[in-house]
Amino acid sequence: MRELATALLRLLASLKLAVVLLVGLAVVLLIGILVDIGKGPDYARWYVYDSQWFVVLLGLLALNIMASMIIRFPWKLSQIGFLTVHVGLLLLLFGAVLTLSYGIEGTLALEEGKSSDEIVLRNTSRFMAQWMAKRGQKDDQVASFAFRPGPVDWSEKETLAFPEELNGIRLKVLRYLAHARMNEDWVADPENVGAPAMKCALTGPEDASAGESWLVAGPSGAEAAAGSTRIDFFKTGMSSLVDDFLHTPKDMDSSGVLAIHYDGRVERVPVSKNIGKTISLPGSKVTVELAGYFPNAKPTADAHFMSQGDEPKNPVLELLVHVPGKKEPLRQNALAQKPMVSFDMVHGQSCPVKFWYHHPKMKPEPGVEFLAAPDGKLYCRLSSEGKYQPRGEVKQGDRIETWGKSFITVVRFVPHAKQEVSFVPVEMSGEEGEDVVEAAAQVEITAGGAARQLWLQRNGQEQTPQIIETKAGKLGVTFDFDTLPLPFSLRLVKFTHGLNPGGVGDASYASMVQILNESHQVSGEQEISMNQPLTNGKFTFYQSGMLPGDSGTVLSAACDPGKHTKYAGSLLICLGCCLMLFKRVNFFDRLSAFPSQKST
Fold first, then answer.
1. What is the C-alpha to C-alpha distance for residues 180 and 299, in angstroms, rounded to an integer?
2. Who is most buried in 158, 372, 403, 558, counting CB within 10 A?
3. CA distance 322 to 111
4. Which pLDDT score, from 0 to 100, does residue 429 have?
5. What is this structure's pTM?
6. Would you state the pLDDT for residue 315?
């Protein structure tokens, strides 16, 4: 057994093994440099420097160095240079492993006058899921799932299931795309509660296509532009409103006509004759009071209107709807410019009476308008030369001629739709100026006793959480970069961006900052520039860029736990080399002979 251990020790201490390991390390480092140049630092870090096999290679080299020291035990004074160099190499390798395993790299973006106490870790992503606050609750329960996805797309068979369940939430990553663009589609809602959705296409002269786009009719409609053509899409919950959409009253007084819709009936009243009066709706006890007329309306701070003159540039009616069983009348407003706009959400109430305000001075802008009725039908009208041209009911596949030999085609129409979002991978060429396309992930979330799959894009939709309805309540989910809290806060006092002579090209960046420590003490102003980093505690901050419009700075933050170990190892290597040089000139032989010469 002892002979086997000795043979293994000699093998590990072999000079041939050392040469092989050093040559292998040199080749790996060369590959890392080439990958960094060709694909970028993220690829080099993921495939080379942060890989387990790279740490194993460093570990084998450390074993070779240790074995070469152990096999020469007991050591002599003449070997002190050799031992010093090898101890320095061990410290250098140990420091490198510390840096690779526990080093921190992140970024910190600051606007002038703002402060932050956390850095963004660009190589680590995070899913955040939280139960949306209910009435009477103070704190939401939050689940955070962090992982390192790497710089490339995952294969379709590659998944990541987080083993832990946090606050009743379990998450699994089914697909990951390093760079992706959203592919949006709308399909029929089986519960028939979704809003109407329409996919339309504009074809110009000689059948030149301007592309296709989806429109979804919200409470105030949806607007889009296909080429130079404006397209509006509205929905209504009352079939009687279709007549006002298609036909404008011919005989109107100077203040217009108000169409009042209730319970399938329509009452049209001239406005100028009924300002300040109350209109009774036939067959019901509901009354509508025309409380005010504003020819050129402007909203006030208390959600009312005031007029800026008598010229009817933006006519608005203020209405009070008296409904049986209600102590106070329901406030409503009717806009001649946008008759389909509802103020129910503004006034915090749902009014059973709907209005359409026609005004003779309101000339429509050129465009195409669609209206989805509650019976699932779709209607269309065109506006040109200040007049509406009704097209009546249109169906999926219809081609509507507009003007200038242009056509709008109703590619798809879904009366009740729900959104289906997926993502497709995007190849990044790495060219300067190319738009950054963020990562996307398809995840399966188990919460409230049910599992649901959905796509999330990192930093998507301005970090607005996607809401999932569960039996346990509403769950909000976001996908973002992971963050790390700092033991202090950094405040940007002033950011300076210097330009080259002539104002072409960046010459310098400089950030004047203050540090607020845990005891809330503020340091004096300190500058971070291109050649002047700032070190506070274990973190060092470097100037790396600026925010759009010179509104602030972007700092790189780094924490290197192996820095001092690598410094010590480098110094020992230099010292050991000097000692070995002295050995070559018989320094130690002369030192050992020095006492005998003195005695003679």
1. 42
2. 372
3. 51
4. 63
5. 0.69
6. 94
